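Postdoc handover notes: sequence design on the structure in folder B. Input tokens:
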């Protein structure tokens, strides 16, 4: 059941939304689902850095470029729309990659495409407005981008034949389809984290008098706003009207509060409205799914062990990404339920759609590349990981780069809120780095 929302859409999208959906028929087969792109293998740090450098160039000039994708351990493919300055743009791309590459060579392949990133973004925006307007009910749950092809990717359920036919009629070859289950938020059911708190720790939600608790979540990275250090977590863990705004270490279940060193702080702001399990629109459709905790001390380090209790190793955070990653980027997650999982591959860095009944933007869709007889084994985040840390290694360093906040999961896919959404919410916000 979806929440009833007040939605503002453009006139063009409203006109499209009023167009009836054409039923599927034998002579009009539904467009097929395409698989998620395969993982590029164990990617070198130099390749990650080169892809990030080129992607920043693409994001800054979306009319001139199409997109970038990591295509192998030491390979990056960049697609450009046609034009008289194609060669000049190709030289610029390769120059950006050379600035990022260290001692290990990276292959940069430049290809010509049909559309620019700006074209793809316009298609994605129209489809997103149609989804929000309820045109396809629960049959199309989200939309993202394949920047390397300059097309939108609609995520639809297995029984969405009529919706896929309708979208294909409207947008032609500028849209493709991937099969997706409905995304669920990962609230509820390491563990005795004391101050200063690390990313990837678990906390339990309590009311102010500490007489009742509801659910468990995880922590992401500290940020500084207006000179005060806060800790990031998921917005749906701390919705605006929750009666459980205080966070204590997950292991402690007694109504008698433990030592204050196990207190994570309380909610000070959030992008999600409503109560736990009964969410309403806040501004998660603009900035993603995050909340700020305040009231304890926080350090920029992340738990990187697989175990959920007992002694755990950690890594310092020495860099932060406030931008959108390249598709094919490899990231790790850390949360109270699954510990650290690495080799998550970003398969759609521009996803938006319904999660837990709310429409969200500023999301990236990830999938494990662990192979199981040729099939993805669906190793992914689980309930209780929400709010946890998303990060990647930094070339030539033992530190990591902060990337985002765990948001939800569904089937073989998981979602995280990009730190780009936090920056869009408040451009002055910063992250203390080691």
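Designed sequence:
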């Amino acid at each position: 059941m979806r929440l009833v929302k007040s939605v503002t859409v453009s006139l063009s999208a409203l006109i499209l939304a009023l167009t009836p959906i054409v039923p599927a028929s034998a002579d009009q087969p539904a467009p097929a689902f395409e698989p998620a792109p395969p993982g590029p293998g164990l990617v070198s740090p130099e390749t990650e850095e080169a892809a990030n450098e080129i992607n920043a160039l693409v994001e800054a000039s979306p009319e001139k470029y199409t997109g970038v994708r990591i295509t192998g351990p030491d390979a990056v493919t960049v697609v450009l729309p046609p034009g008289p300055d194609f060669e000049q743009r190709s030289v610029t791309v390769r120059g950006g990659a050379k600035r990022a590459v260290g001692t290990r060579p990276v292959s940069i392949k430049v290809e010509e495409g049909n559309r620019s990133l700006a074209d793809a973004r316009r298609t994605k925006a129209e489809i997103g407005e149609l989804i929000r307007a309820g045109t396809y009910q629960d049959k199309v749950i989200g939309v993202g981008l394949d920047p390397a092809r300059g097309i939108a990717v609609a995520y639809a359920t297995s029984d969405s034949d009529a919706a896929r036919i309708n979208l294909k009629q409207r947008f032609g070859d500028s849209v493709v389809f991937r099969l997706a289950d409905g995304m669920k938020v990962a609230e509820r059911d390491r563990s005795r984290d004391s101050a200063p708190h690390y990313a990837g720790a678990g906390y339990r939600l309590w009311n102010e008098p500490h007489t009742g608790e509801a659910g468990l979540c995880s922590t992401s990275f500290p940020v500084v706003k207006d000179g005060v250090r806060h800790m990031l977590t998921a917005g749906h863990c701390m919705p605006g009207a929750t009666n459980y705004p205080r966070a204590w270490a997950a292991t402690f279940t007694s109504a008698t509060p433990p030592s204050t060193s196990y207190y994570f702080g309380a909610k000070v702001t959030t992008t999600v409205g409503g109560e736990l399990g009964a969410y309403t629109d806040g501004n998660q459709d603009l900035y993603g799914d995050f909340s700020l905790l305040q009231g304890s001390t926080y350090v920029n380090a992340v738990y990187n062990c697989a175990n959920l209790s007992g002694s755990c190793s950690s890594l310092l955070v020495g860099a932060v990404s406030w931008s959108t990653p390249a598709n094919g980027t490899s990231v790790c997650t850390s949360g109270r339920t699954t510990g650290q999982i690495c080799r998550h591959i970003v398969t759609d860095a521009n996803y938006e759609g319904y999660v837990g009944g709310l429409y969200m933007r500023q999301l990236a869709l990830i999938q494990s590349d662990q192979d199981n007889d040729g099939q993805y084994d669906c190793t992914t985040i689980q309930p209780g990981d929400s709010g946890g840390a998303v990060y990647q290694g930094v070339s030539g360093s033992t530190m990591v780069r902060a990337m985002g906040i765990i948001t939800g999961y569904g089937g073989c896919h998981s979602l995280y809120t990009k730190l780009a959404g936090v920056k869009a919410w408040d451009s002055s916000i910063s992250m203390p780095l080691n």
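Context for whoever picks this up: Residues 1-26 have pLDDT under 50 and may be disordered. Don't rerun without checking with the PI first.
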